[in-house]
Amino acid sequence: MVGKSQIKFIKSLQQKKYRIQHGMFVVEGIKTVRELLDSNFEAHKVYAINNNLVSAEQVNVELVSEADLKRISNLKNPNKVLGVFKFPLVKPIEEQGWILALDDVRDPGNMGTIIRLCDWFGVRQLVCSENTVDCFNPKVLQATMGSITRVNIVYTDLLQFIKSSELSVYGTFMNGENVHVTKMPEKGILVMGNEANGISKEIADLVNHKITIPQFGGQKTESLNVATATAIFLNEIRRSEK
Amino acid sequence: MVGKSQIKFIKSLQQKKYRIQHGMFVVEGIKTVRELLDSNFEAHKVYAINNNLVSAEQVNVELVSEADLKRISNLKNPNKVLGVFKFPLVKPIEEQGWILALDDVRDPGNMGTIIRLCDWFGVRQLVCSENTVDCFNPKVLQATMGSITRVNIVYTDLLQFIKSSELSVYGTFMNGENVHVTKMPEKGILVMGNEANGISKEIADLVNHKITIPQFGGQKTESLNVATATAIFLNEIRRSEK
């Protein structure tokens, strides 16, 4: 039986301010919870409807009824396990390899997809402006599929970070150089901007290389979604290294 | 004042069976409605909260209150204009250029993003298996942003279509040839599969060239989302033509 105060606590973690206050977040689903348990993330508590779902040696597990799981879950159809985890230790940003920088990306689905892309393409460092959507937002976590354990995500003053970095800064613009012909170095910062407004003026001024994905379908399509554009740019970065 | 029967009719078009029965679908938002009005799509009726939003010469416009718009809308925050449009005439598939084939893609957001990608990369023909999500689903239309007017979308028996085609068939698999080194021809069929299960067995047997996006982040990431993978493959197809 999950008590009222526990339900209230877990539900509160759906909001960023309480996540920050407690330094904890919630993930749901067997697969993602297991991935987090197998990583460096530290579990606070796991709620499971069945003894065999999570190894009790790893963590403080409480068996709960399906009705109780529904009470603490954020999903319409809760998926057997819910885990409360502590925020990971954020490592300092290292100036090696490619760093992806997000300037005010707002959509949780895009953010989750971008984290998964970083993981696929071996981009270990994701630096986000402070107005970028919180990576521990439940919708972000649903889209990352455990990739969040393998990418170091830092929220900081992006303008100051870029100013103080010695790396070349690549930014995506509608009128930049065709990324198919741009020679990419082995390291750098790639900046992706806000869904509606792109890269902010202050940060655009710091971009050394403006690049673009060429369009083949006439001039009508407005732009690519930021997550699909990130997919193409990260693929191009890795392609150039070959 | 929008009458009860009109509300019922418009609301019914949120379901596929009524869309098929009436041969009509709903789009919302000024921008997308305008794009459809400026295309070959034929409007049945447009509901707008303001006279200046849509040129009345183009179409049968009914001015409605915000409260009425809320009654017929599928959105939490309706966006000034709602249009009911007739299904477009589906053109026969032409065996020229690249054809994208979707084998049981289920997620409306993915479908919408894929249509937008076809538009960007000039892929004019999208052939879908009959179990692929309906392109006139409201969530698909929300993600396409008007691109649907520039891509010919055909639902058919995909297996038969591929069997009867003379084009080379490229399919995406975890263990295929690295797409960075695959030489792409000027035309062909690219098959993308279901979110959970990939390309079905019967269609996989017809694939001439198995290709894959190389992974750089270790072996843990399971797979890329089908929309982001499509972004990368379409970019690679156009890249090879250069």
Structural notes for this entry:
The structure is a homodimer of 242-residue chains. With 242 residues, chain A is α/β, with parallel strands linked by helices. Chain A has 2 domains: 4-86, 60s Ribosomal Protein L30, Chain: A; 98-241, 3-Layer(aba) Sandwich (Alpha/beta knot), CATH 3.40.1280. Helix content of chain A is 32%, strand content 22%. The first copy, chain A, contains 9 helices and 10 strands. In chain A, the strands form 2 sheets. Chain A has a 6-stranded parallel sheet with strand order 7-6-5-9-8-10. In chain A, strand 6, helix 6 (138-144) and strand 7 form a beta-alpha-beta unit. The first copy, chain A, is elongated and about 60 Å long. In chain A, 42% of the residues are buried. The mean pLDDT of chain A is 91. The A-B interface holds A 109, 113, 116-123, 145-147, 150, 180, 213-218, 220-222, 224-225, 227-232, 235-236, 238-239, 242 and B 109, 113, 116-123, 145-147, 150, 180, 213-218, 220-222, 224-225, 227-229, 231-232, 235-236, 238-239, 242.
The CATH architecture designation of the largest domain in chain A is: 3-Layer(aba) Sandwich
DSSP E strands of chain A, number: 10
Could you describe the largest sheet of chain A, including whether it forms a barrel? 6 strands, parallel
Instruction: For the record, give the distance between the C-alpha atoms at the N and C termini of chain A, rounded to a whole number.
Output: 56 Å
Shape of chain A: elongated
Rounded radius of gyration of chain A (Å): 20 Å
The neighbouring-strand order within the major sheet of chain A is 7-6-5-9-8-10
Average pLDDT, all residues of chain A: 91
The CATH class of the largest domain in chain A is identified as: Alpha Beta
Query: What's the CATH H-level homologous superfamily of the largest domain in chain A?
Result: SPOUT methyltransferase, trefoil knot domain
Per DSSP, the total helix count of chain A is 9
Which regions of chain A have little confidence, pLDDT < 50, spanning 5+ residues? Answer: none
Order of helices and strands of chain A: HHEHEEHEEHEHEHEEHEH
Strand content of chain A: 15-25%
- Count of all domains of chain A: 2
Helix content of chain A: 25-40%
Find the biggest chain interface: A-B, 37 and 36 residues
